[in-house]
Amino acid sequence: MRQCVGCREMKNKKEMIRVIRTSEQEFVLDATGKKNGRGAYICPNRECLSQAIKSKGLERSFKQAIPKEVYESLEKEMEHLESQ
């Protein structure tokens, strides 16, 4: 069980999107859930993403500023998941 950085609900980690920070300090979406790095989880819906942006949930998890591109790639991933 993992906590969403947006809605703060506990859910099974397979139901969520994992964002990791690699040792090279870059942020990557981890679909497999097995890549090395510090991870944070978010529900795959727009409400949780907007809550995470508003509350700076990812910034708190990683203790640093998050590049805008990370939020854009999360939004694209959620659009992809919704279209399936």
Automatic annotation (TrEMBL):
InterPro entries: YlxR, YlxR-like_sf, YlxR_dom
Residue ranges constituting the YlxR domain according to the UniProt record: 2-76
Pfam name, any one: YlxR
Cited CDD domains: YlxR (cd00279)
NCBIfam families for this protein: RNA_bind_RnpM
Name the record gives this protein: YlxR family protein
Source organism (scientific name): Dorea hominis
